[in-house]
Structures are given as C-alpha cells and as structure tokens.
Amino acid sequence: MSSSKFALKPVDVSVVLKEKVYESLKSAIMAMDIYGDDEPPRLDERRLAEELGVSRTPVREAISRLEQEGLVQSLPRRGAFVVRKSKNEILQIICVWAALESMAARLATQRASDDQIARLRALFARLDDSDEARAHIDEYSEGNIRFHQSIIALSGCDLLTQVAEGLFVHMRHIRARTIKDADRADKSVIDHMHIIEALEARDTELAERLVREHTLALGEHVKKHVDYLN
Which residues are CB-neighbours of 30 under 8 A, at least 6 positions away? Predict the structure, then answer.
C-alpha cells in the first residue's frame, strides 16, 4: 500500500463523535507522506466514512475544520485534497520554524526541568551515532521528528506551540524525506548531541544559535537538492 494512503480505524461512537472523526483524519494526514505521489491525496467522503464506520456528515464537518486550519483544500467539481506546499512555500515555513524553534530552545534553557531535558537525550540513547542512525533510518527519522517537537514543548509557551503546530505537518514530512538524503543523518546526530549539551549546560545563547543553524541548514539542503516540490 502506498505511504500516501490513509490508515484509518473505526471510531468509538460512544464518545464525542465529531471530535473523534476530526482527530482520526488529522492523525492520518500527519502520518502519511503527502509528497510521495505526483498528485496530492484526495479525501473521499464516502470511503472515509465507511472506513471510520460513521455517516458522511461528521466526515464532512471534519474536512471543513481541517480546511480552516490550512491542511485541506476543497476544489470545485474535484473534491477535497490534502494541501501540499511549493518549494518556495516550504522554504518560508522552514525559515519561520527556525525562528520559533530557536526561541523555544532559548526558553527551554530557562524553564525546562533537568528531567525534561534528560528525556531529549533518552530519545537517542540507542541511535546516538551515525552508523546506528543509518542502520535504523526509519526509527531515527521518527526520533528526529519527536526531538524537534520536544524542543517546542520545552519552551513552556502555549502560543509558540500553537503557531508551530500549524507548520508542523509540513516540517514533519520534509524532515522525514530529507533525513535519508546523502549525509543528512550523520549531520543530524552530531547537531542533536550538541544541542542537547547546550540545553543541559543551560547555555541560552548557544542553544538558540545551534537550533537555528540546524534548521536553516535543512533549508539550504531543500533549496539545493529537493526537486520534487517544484
């Protein structure tokens, strides 16, 4: 099955149905490779309703809500599709993410507990060298994504987290695809360890700079080597 296909489970109708359908669709979008095929994934209301075991009404409402969040676009006479960004748009998203995550790292040095920072290191306890990262690239990729989510969360700033969440779906996909390129995994391991060390040392300026440079390096890689976004 293509990685851009939906993997859905029937929802429990004994709880708030609309919210469950919305969360299920959003989770499916977050998990799929939206850039894996030539065309953006289409949301078929009838098929989604059948797979979820619900009527089409809550599915339609969930799609409308996802459209308001910018994750879905409805096209006249064509239907609803998961939004994909152009290369230029992705580069802008990366730029904004660099600003958000570097500020989050700065705040983390001031607000996060030692235990919270220690959990960042635990994410890479088994994959803390380049050979292990390459040998278990899919596992490392998921750890990489959780790492960046965790830094945002460690900021302790709800508004920053909310803004970042709106960009995360595209950052997640671009990180997952590019981590397998050339020496990206090798560089990622080194960068992450330096970032963790800066956070552990409560070195505010260094942590902020390292996180910003790490994300901007992703932007440079996308600019030079990623062609499927054009």
Answer: 168, 169, 172
